[in-house]
Amino acid sequence: MCAYHPESPARYICQGESCFEKRIFCHACLKNNKHMHSVNRNELIEELPQILEGSRQDCDHLLEFIEETFKEIILFKDYLIRAIRKKYHIQIELFNEINIESKCQALDNLIKFKEDSKIIQQVLDQPFKTVLSHIKDGITDVCLEQVTYLGQMTEQERQQFQNHITESQNLFQSNRLEEALEKVERALIINPRDLDALIQKGNILMRLQRLKEAQQQFIQALKIDELHVTSRFALGSYYIRTNQRRQALQQYFKIIDINPGNQQAIIQIDQLLEETY
Ligand SMILES: [Zn+2]
Ligand SMILES: [Zn+2]
To answer: Sorted alphabetically, which keywords does the UniProt record give (predicted)?
Structure first.
């Protein structure tokens, strides 16, 4: 059906790149000059299977590129490990068999190992951190939490999700914040639109003093459901923590709108007003 006229059948799909209208439309829409911004990018609805097929192929190319890049990294990691092991991991049996020149060289190398090992770690540490942070940015850029057509979780996924969340909460309780963060991130890969998981991640980031990132989590949760009171409270406490009292007040007022008589919100508002004046 047409996205604008539920009573009439869909005839066209707009493929224009800078389109802000709903992309499935009918003949009446066309007559009313909808999607005239890029007429030559309007396709017949019958083309849909080919359009999806084309996109799947593009997606496969990107995934292949990622797989190949990582395979190469892992291949060279194996070479590096083998090289280090050959040079420094010397068994006593081998040592006894080699000639005196080699024995001296082996001992020489072992003495220099501490220095060499420090250098290798330093050289690798920074690029690895950079790559890892780019990968994390990539995951964030996909914005999976905004995708409304994600299917339901399978029973197994639900179980895994719940395990990650529980572990994350326990780690959070015992103040093992980095580990707690990793667990909740795993849960969010399974279900990126789970509000409690987003809030959990935000709360961990708050404790880690990564306040901006924490705020993003709360805002993301509210984009999914702007009536979610827990998210509003979390965003409110972010604003208090960062001394933005006006914005904090706004959040608590919205909570009262959603849920009139919410005691916790009323107490927060009272406190904020007392402190302001
Ligand atoms: Zn229409
Ligand atoms: Zn359009």
So the answer is: Repeat, TPR repeat
